[in-house]
Amino acid sequence: MAKGHRSQIKRERNENKDTRPSAKLSYARMSVQKACFVLDAIRGKDVESALGILTYNPRYASSVIKKLLESAVANAENNNGLSRSSLYVAECYANKAPTMKRIRPRAQGRAYRIEKRMSHITVVLDEK
To answer: What distance in Å separates the CA atoms of residue 82 and residue 121, rounded to the nearest whole number?
Structure first.
């Protein structure tokens, strides 16, 4: 059954909207598991120490996530008027994206499937 007029439902949904600054990267060419190794290292840290961790982390995902974190900080400064020194990484997570399926030729006419996994990465900041 309907719970009200369409505009009323939209209004209620927008009242509960999260206003924290964030940045999202869709279809990143890395698996969720590999992205989560880096995300676990920066979760809960303040922005400056998180950027330091990402700068010296040798994994490929760290360079991508560093760029995403800098984008989230820029969003916080420009859109919300927050200062960089008071921000910390409140949430960061990676969700599964569509997988590209490729074929690898093998011996005796066989073909093995190669799955090139992708992920959607989200970083949410908040004030201390």
So the answer is: 22
